[in-house]
Design a protein that fits this description.
The chain is an alpha/beta fold. It has seven helices and seven strands. It binds adenosine-5'-diphosphate (ADP) and the ligand Nc1ccn([C@@H]2O[C@H](COP(=O)(O)O)[C@@H](O)[C@H]2O)c(=O)n1. Adenosine-5'-diphosphate binds next to α1 and α5.
């Protein structure tokens, strides 16, 4: 590994827990300069060859929905300070878009996603593991609003998916990974004390490189 290896921070937690909000708040504090965010969602398996009816049947909360091999390959390139072509995910089409974004390595890489602590190969790459822990009632309310506004869903479809898939998969696969976290942040984005502590830690790491 190179001496100036980037620091990798994992931010896990259930859907709607506030992972993206925590990550974005931290990123803004550092004015984007030294932090690169790698969203596990962008590494859902490519489904462009499947018809839409089939894409709608996919279980997006199961570990097998993700192409972690590609995510790991990209993280290893970033660790070597090489640029990567990051996929772009389209939640409305339920697949990767045909675009990729070329991203340059940065000193701090935040890997964010529901199931990043489920794969030991991913965890092995992380220097710090954070779990955003938010009650289920709050998570579903946030997800309802977000999915209808931003992900092209209906009220009925969000409730149906949550009841049949998101909730059982959360209990089976996501909640148990909380035990791997170094830090558990209750309530996510509004927890300014936790965000301040994390930002201070990152600042210390960056200034001692
Ligand atoms: N503390 C909060 N208070 C109110 N809304 C929030 C809070 N944290 C997140 N949200 C909103 O809830 C939704 C889900 O949050 P997000 O950060 O995307 O969660 P995740 O990435 O864990 O799915 C978003 O629309 C976000 O703006
Ligand atoms: N085509 C897709 C892909 C993913 N989802 C849901 O997204 C959730 C993970 O994203 P968060 O930002 O909420 O952490 C996950 O629970 C999937 O159910 C989807 O609905 N459709």
């Amino acid at each position: 590994m190179p001496e100036n290896r980037p620091i990798i921070i994992g931010v896990a937690g259930g859907s709607g827990s506030g992972k993206t909000s925590v990550t974005n708040t931290i990123k803004e504090r550092f004015k984007d300069q030294s932090i690169l965010v790698m969203e596990q969602d962008f590494y859902y398996k490519d489904q462009s060859t499947l018809p839409m009816e089939q894409r709608l049947q996919t279980n997006y909360d199961h570990p097998l929905a993700f192409d972690n091999d590609l995510l790991i390959e990209h993280l290893k390139e970033l660790i070597l300070r090489n640029p990567i072509n990051k996929p772009v995910y389209d939640y409305k089409m339920h697949t990767r878009s045909d675009k990729v974004i070329k991203v340059e390595p940065k000193d701090v890489i935040i890997v964010e996603g529901i199931l990043i602590f489920e794969d030991p190969r991913l965890m092995d790459l992380m220097d710090m593991k954070i779990f955003v822990d938010t009650d289920a009632d709050i998570r579903i309310m946030r997800r309802l609003v977000r999915d209808i506004k931003e992900r092209g869903r209906t009220l009925d479809s969000v409730i149906d998916q949550y009841t049949k898939v998101v909730r059982p998969m959360h209990l089976q696969f996501i909640e148990p990974t909380k035990r791997y976290a170094d830090i558990i942040i209750p309530e996510g984005g509004q927890n300014l004390v936790a965000i301040d502590l994390l930002a201070t830690k990152i600042d210390t790491i960056l200034n001692h490189k």
